[in-house]
Amino acid sequence: MSSWKKKKRGFEEYSCPEGIALQIGDIDKSGVIMSKVQGGMKCVKYLLFVFNFIFWLSGLLVLAVGLWLRFDPQTVELLTGDKAPDTFFIAVYILLGAGGLMMIVGFFGCFGAVRESQCLLASFFACLLIIFGAEIAAGVFGFINKEQIVEEVQKFYSSSISDVSNSNETAIAFIYHQSLNCCGGTSSDPTAALCAEVPEGTQDCLTAITDFFNERLHIIGFTGIGIAGVMIIGMIFSMVLCCAIRNNREVI
């Protein structure tokens, strides 16, 4: 039977028998007892890992979409004119930043759950809390400034049909026509060069843009609420696991 106390290089080192150590936790190569959560906390640990892995993949997808929008030749060509709104590239940079942040947060959560690191789990919680607050702020800002956003998009479309001789602006107008199934700036006076072959009764694009935002506002809102709910679950899991790790180490 192994001793509870032994000498090592002139220093006293305390250890417990192997059987007891295995009940408390695992022993690493240096002989230090590593605490491990047991029972229901194991389920929380693996759920948190899966949650963060999906979160990391989502961040990778957002980052990929942002890079595609930023460097896609067709998109850049269409939206680099003098009249192009700066909000497009601002949104792209926000996507890039959000994707990178999501990947970092997902890494903190995954590695923190696997290693049972209180520091990483606390960092994960703090990052999620910041993202949660930013999402709430963005939602409130978007709801309050919805009319202004619609007006800016309408102005951009109107500028794209003001000069039909410009191929870039005509291509932008065509994208609006295809996406919103509309044509022209007003229902009474559509642009003849662009809407000559459009069926009678087609909605004008200024009205279509307004309807587009109004119809999808509730979808965006429900999606935001769903994402916020997932974040709250992630924060709860991380705090529960962090407290369980701390309590387990205090017992040891």
TrEMBL record:
GO terms for cellular component: plasma membrane
The keyword Lipoprotein belongs to this UniProt entry's keyword annotation: no
Membrane topology note: Multi-pass membrane protein
Regions crossing the membrane: 46-68, 88-114, 121-144, 219-245
Domain of life of the source: Eukaryota
Keywords: Membrane, Transmembrane, Transmembrane helix
Location of the protein in the cell: Membrane
Family listed: Belongs to the tetraspanin (TM4SF) family.
PANTHER family: TETRASPANIN, TETRASPANIN-2
Stated name of the protein: Tetraspanin
Organism: Scomber scombrus
